[in-house]
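Structure in, sequence out. Go:
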């Protein structure tokens, strides 16, 4: 029997004109925000690339598609930010609440560090053990660099103090990497440096209702199917400063018998990563109402 997972993209999947056919739904989902995300999606590429706007844009796009999705699924998964859309699909949080939560998350992440305080870079051509060893070698007591996103074989993102990111970008090839590419992000996401926003984000989350999942969500932190509301909530907080273990999560799903991966939301980033992890699964991308109608039938 076919097992299916719904997967939801994270930051980096946004693009101008996204959710153009979902304006009504997105407007309804984002009415609690104090900015017009629909207008930003349509007209303001510069603003859309800012973390505090990117996060509600992507989650509202995915959530608007979830509302129309017809079909069974056995698991959900999200890449970092995408985990919030996964929780909507799994019945853990309301879509409107997810949008409010990620707007706050984006704001906290964007303002946690002054410009130039910390950043991220993609390391190509090394495995996780090699990247971990490299990070340990470069890190010092007062400036760290750590694995942040384990995306697929040969593609790992690191995060940390700006000086260490610059050092790795400059010396990456001589340290064994094929390439090290600096990322255009506003902070050292998914590193221990992000613990500075833990308390404020945790207190904000306490204002929302979390229910046990109707469909298990494979969380980035544990790489395990979770259904308990308290566990899921705790790991959302831990996710801020823990690596996104996407490759391990996909492998876990494949080992559990999943053969169909359905990406819901803007872009096809996750489908591309899954292809690099396994060639033996089916991948579908649902970005628009037309994609969804084609799939639903």
């Amino acid at each position: 029997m076919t097992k299916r997972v719904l997967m939801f993209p994270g930051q980096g999947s946004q693009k101008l004109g996204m959710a153009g056919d979902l304006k009504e739904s997105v407007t309804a989902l984002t009415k609690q925000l104090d900015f017009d995300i629909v207008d930003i999606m349509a007209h303001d590429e510069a603003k859309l690339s800012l973390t505090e706007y990117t996060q509600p844009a992507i989650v509202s796009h995915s959530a608007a598609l979830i509302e129309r999705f017809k079909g069974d699924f056995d698991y959900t998964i999200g890449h970092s930010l995408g985990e919030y859309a996964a929780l909507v699909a799994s019945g853990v949080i309301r879509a409107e609440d997810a949008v409010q939560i990620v707007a706050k998350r984006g704001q906290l992440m964007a303002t946690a560090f002054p410009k130039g305080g910390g950043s991220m870079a993609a390391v190509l051509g090394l495995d996780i053990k090699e990247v971990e060893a490299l990070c340990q070698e470069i890190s010092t007591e007062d400036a760290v660099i750590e694995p942040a996103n384990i995306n697929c074989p040969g593609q790992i993102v690191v995060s940390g103090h700006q000086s260490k990111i610059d050092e790795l970008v400059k010396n990456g090839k001589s340290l064994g990497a094929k390439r090290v590419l600096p990322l255009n992000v506003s902070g050292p996401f998914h590193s221990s440096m992000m613990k500075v926003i833990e308390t404020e984000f945790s207190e904000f989350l306490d204002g929302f209702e979390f229910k046990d999942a109707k469909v298990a969500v494979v969380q980035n932190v544990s790489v395990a199917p979770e259904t308990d509301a308290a566990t899921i909530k705790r790991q959302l907080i831990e996710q801020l400063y823990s690596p996104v273990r996407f490759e391990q999560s996909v492998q876990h799903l494949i080992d559990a018998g999943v053969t169909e991966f359905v990406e819901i939301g803007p872009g096809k980033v996750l489908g591309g990563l899954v292809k690099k992890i396994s060639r033996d699964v089916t991948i579908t991308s649902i970005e628009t109402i037309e994609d969804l109608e084609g799939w639903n039938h």
